[in-house]
Amino acid sequence: MAPTGGIIERYRQFLPVSDRTPLVAMGEGNTPLVLSKSIGPELGARAVYFKLEGCNPTGSFKDRGMAMAIAKALEKGARRIICASTGNTSASAAAYGARYDLRCIVLVPAGAGDVAVGKLAQAMAYGARVIAVKGSFDAALRLVREASERLEMELVNSVNPNRIEGQKTGAFEIVDDLGDAPDMLCIPVGNAGNITAYWKGFKEYWEIAKARSLPKMMGFQAEGSAPIVRGEPVETPTTIASAIRIGNPASWQPALKARDESRGRIDAVTDEEIIGAYLRLARSEGVFCEPASAASVAGLMKLPSLGVSLEGKTIVCIITGNGLKDPSTAERRARVDFEFVEPSLDRVEALLGGQASRIR
Ligand code: AN7
């Protein structure tokens, strides 16, 4: 048994694992499902939970799928892995590559702010070869799909079905924790691999009666990067949520299937709504996530205005990545003026003894 735990060991009977598959693990999965104490009650829901995927080893949900993809890559004797990424996939691939001696090559969009600094710092620290493509994420993904075939490298984007297999374990954990599926799952949508994976996981558990119900899948794209909502690719996607700045999602069709089979929806949220949810999560729930992750909560908070009743509902929001991934957004959007003080107790008392702090 692997002392480092992980999703492959825990869910191996549901995963493409044989005796020859290495138990790749560094503590991914088993993430907290935290009850909302402010947003849920305000919305009149029965219960809203946040699944904190930022608690995975590299700080995002990608580690679930990456563990599985790396296990299968090792099983077939791959030496090099490659991916395109808005940041988190590259950080995850680089970490598992480092741990399991696979040379890791990542292609990221080259524009300023295209990849949050925390993610780039991670990929570099883990020793990946980082190549900046003068184009969008979509262009980088097109390139790696072709390059991986021509150069015999293992592609570890979510077009690799092993990534989806690993990521579906998030749905298993929710059902294992709640005893059934929630009424709704709120999830950010970028390349649309994760919504595809969660739907697969919920269905698989339902088919073997581990869950009595299926959730409505509620996906949220950023308004400037909402190809699925618009029904056509977006040539130059824009949004503050760089992780989901994707104009032509690879798993577009499976995402539509998840939406339609579950009688859910895929909607857009504005950057303003994303930042509102981002600060609300931090300040009233103590949950610091990256902007893309806040899209799930921004979407949830918007549902009543779209005519969706939340009354009596149990809802899970997937908080896909840690806020520390993108410190620049926090610095820009959460800044309050610093207060300076002389190193004297009297001065500190003068500052704090009277009215409450200005922060709120
Ligand atoms: C925090 O890392 O696409 O819909 O290259 O990092 O499965 O793409 C990241 C996506 C949501 C969207 N939240 O998930 C990448 C990348 C965070 C993310 C998404 C991403 P998908």
How would you describe what is shown here?
The protein is of the alpha/beta class and 360 residues long. Helix content is 41%, strand content 14%. The protein contains 15 helices and ten strands. It has helices at 7-10, 39-43, 62-75, 88-99, 117-125, 137-150, 161-167, 169-178, 193-207, 227-230, 252-261, 271-285, 291-302, 327-333, 345-352; strands at residues 33-35, 47-52, 80-84, 103-109, 129-133, 154-155, 184-188, 216-222, 265-269, 314-319. Strand 4, helix 5 and strand 5 form a beta-alpha-beta unit. Helix 4 (88-99) runs parallel beside helix 5, helix 8 crosses helix 9 (193-207) and helix 12 (271-285) crosses helix 13. It starts with 6 loop residues before the first helix and ends in an 8-residue tail after the last helix. The mean pLDDT is 96. Bound molecules: ligand AN7.
Q: Summarize the helix and strand pattern as letters.
A: HEHEHEHEHEHEHHEHEHHEHHEHH
Rg from Cα: 21 Å
Spatial ordering of strands, largest sheet? 1-2-10-7-8-9
Structural class: alpha/beta
Mean pLDDT: 96
Q: What's a quick, concise take on this entry?
A:
The chain is an alpha/beta fold. It is built from 15 helices and 10 strands.
Features:
360 residues, alpha/beta, six-stranded mixed β-sheet, four-stranded parallel β-sheet, 15 helices, binds ligand AN7
Itemize the secondary structure elements and their pairings.
Elements (H helix, E strand, L loop, with lengths): L6 H4 L22 E3 L3 H5 L3 E6 L9 H14 L4 E5 L3 H12 L3 E7 L7 H9 L3 E5 L3 H14 L3 E2 L5 H7 L1 H10 L5 E5 L4 H15 L8 E7 L4 H4 L21 H10 L3 E5 L1 H15 L5 H12 L11 E6 L7 H7 L11 H8 L8
Parallel strand pairs: 2-10, 3-4, 3-6, 4-5, 7-8, 7-10, 8-9
Antiparallel strand pairs: 1-2
Ligand AN7 binds next to α4, α9 and α13.
